[in-house]
Amino acid sequence: MPVVTxxxxxxxxxxxxxxxLLSLLKELGIEMPTLCHLEGLSDRGGCRLCMxxxxxxxxxxxxxxxxxxxxxxxxxxxxxxxxxxRMILELLFAERNHVCAVCxxxxxxxxxxxxxxxxMDSVRYDYLVPDLPMDASHERYVLDHNRCIxxxxxxxxxxxxEGAHVWDLMGRGVNSRVIAGLNQPWGDSDSCTKCGKCxxxxxxxxxxxxxxxxxxxxxxxxxxxxxxxGREKKQWDYS
Amino acid sequence: MARKQTNPREDAAPxxxxxxxxxxxxxxxxxxxxxxxxxxxxxDEKLLDLFAQADxxxxxxxxxxxxxxxxxxxLVEGAIANVDHVKLAKExxxxxxxxxSFGDCxxxxxxxxxxxxxxxxxxxxxxxxxxxxxxxxxxxxxIMPALLPRVxxxxxxxxxxxxxxxxxxxxxxxxTAVSALLAGQPVEFEPEMRLFG
Lengths: 239, 197
Ligand code: SF4
Ligand code: SF4
Ligand code: SF4
Hints:
Order of helices and strands of chain A: EEHEEEHHEEHEEHEH
Strand content of chain B: 15-25%
Bound molecules: iron/sulfur cluster
CATH topology of the largest domain in chain A: Alpha-Beta Plaits
Low-confidence stretches of chain A: none
Oligomer: heterodimer
CATH superfamily of the domain at 23-112 and 149-191 in chain B: NADH:ubiquinone oxidoreductase-like, 20kDa subunit
Largest interface: A-B, 26 and 33 residues
Strand content of chain A: 15-25%
Helix content of chain B: 25-40%
Structural class of chain B: alpha/beta
Shape of chain A: globular
Shape of chain B: globular
Strand order of the largest sheet of chain B: 2-1-3-5-7
CATH topology of the domain at 23-112 and 149-191 in chain B: Rossmann fold
Low-confidence stretches of chain B: 1-14
Mean pLDDT of chain B: 88
CATH architecture of the domain at 23-112 and 149-191 in chain B: 3-Layer(aba) Sandwich
Number of strands of chain B: 7
Structural class of chain A: alpha+beta
CATH architecture of the largest domain in chain A: 2-Layer Sandwich
Number of strands of chain A: 10
Distance between the termini of chain B: 25 Å
Strand order of the largest sheet of chain A: 2-1-5-3-4
Radius of gyration of chain B: 17 Å
CATH class of the largest domain in chain A: Alpha Beta
């Protein structure tokens, strides 16, 4: 693949043409905050945390869906970007009901960690306090809309990796919701194979194992890499 | 809907040492479970260091009725949940140089705000009317303070200069914050000390 040369935070670097800016930044060891991105799933530029500034444009660009380009001049942690990142995180906390102290994901949550890392010490916006249900109809798992950040990792893993496409989104803006099937109780879904992939990739306490209590839920994404290496390179590591 | 952002690092004025050389420290218990104060007491021997430098001028662990004047640093545990909290919070702001949201309930509303999706009347009915005793409304008897329709974090009512997250904040966080404030420095935490919950 042809090599492109670009400038990142005032340093000259090179990348592979066609690769995403986010993957290059990660290779360079630059820590980029992300929530909707997950190695092994398609990127959608939804959470906007990986936004960067590109010289010559007032717009901000989500690094996960921006390909590297020859001559690009990129800034990843300007004050403007850091402020927006904090605002995004505060808006996520204000939009649903996050009460970490009594959440199953407490201590192992990507949203909670990103908030702390990005300097969020409080939420400047009024909490919307939406009246949202939980779906506990599935025999193994629970969906709690109160903790969902609409990252669609569940939608993508179920569609792209499991091939069942149980999940999708309905509604718009703050009224958006993750739905199973055609908006039916998850437990009634005929297409769900009960594989649990959506639960493991969910960054928050929105998808959890049935019966887990406060701070008990921990997730692991290793299976994604394992499956993809197996499928793409025909290397199945059973060790 | 946007509120003025209170950034502790920019706004917090250093606590000027008062005449006897000691910082006038207050701690307040609003809509919280007192867990933050329990954690404060867990400072154990560090409390001796603390009170070598500070006088405790108001606190649930000291028997004082009025919030005093000229307080240097006030730690507020708990969210704003009733009309008494509103009145006291405003007094605290007027009489304190530095106000600190102490623990998740003060910072986010946390557990105290779990009731926010319910109507206050439904709440009182559930807890009192369907239980023993009569429903207190607060407005008539002056004994039970009336509940606010919604519990809010402290900084949504008054300006707050620093935040100590945690439910409850552990002693490392409390000591990091308190020792910075005693030294007249802004409160700064490492990311892992900033986690809610
Ligand atoms: S999902 Fe994460 S941020 Fe939300 S309440 Fe649970 S632990 Fe906190
Ligand atoms: S358990 Fe598996 S099949 Fe069922 S919704 Fe989740 S990812 Fe899809
Ligand atoms: S349920 Fe979890 S994975 Fe799915 S959109 Fe919500 S936060 Fe993301």
